[in-house]
Amino acid sequence: MVTPGNKPSMLIKPTLDTKFYVDYSWWDRSSEDLRMYLLSHVLPEQRDRLINTEAGSVIDYIDPDTGEVFQLDELQFAIKKAAEDPNFINPQTSGGQCVPRVSGE
Fold first, then answer.
1. At what angle do helices 44-51 and 74-83 cross, to 10 degrees?
2. Averaged over 60-75, what is the pLDDT?
3. What Å distances lie between residue 33 and 1, 17, 72, 78, 101, CA to CA?
4. Alpha-carbon radius of gyration of the chain
5. Pairing state between β 69-73 and 58-62
6. pTM of the entire structure?
7. Does residue 2 or residue 40 have the better pLDDT?
8. For the residues 53-58, what does the mean pLDDT come to?
9. CB 103, CB 95: distance < 8 Å
């Protein structure tokens, strides 16, 4: 709880330890489409395929490091694959685009 004596400062500068996250509750309150926003982060050939795929469809994914098998939403998998592209984050990527890309969301 924030009280007048311990009100957080708006002047606090982030550090390398500052955590960023995607506030999914904002998407619930807004008129924006979360799926369409996430599609903007995948590679064009994946985007073209996923636009016509039913939301929530899952695939089996095998972690290449551990061999663990788990289910991933196809869109999550596409973002994971896009993250392997060396240009996924580049000097032209805006801060607003970087946060969901580095947060693993």
1. 170
2. 89
3. 32, 30, 20, 17, 17
4. 17
5. antiparallel
6. 0.58
7. 40
8. 82
9. no
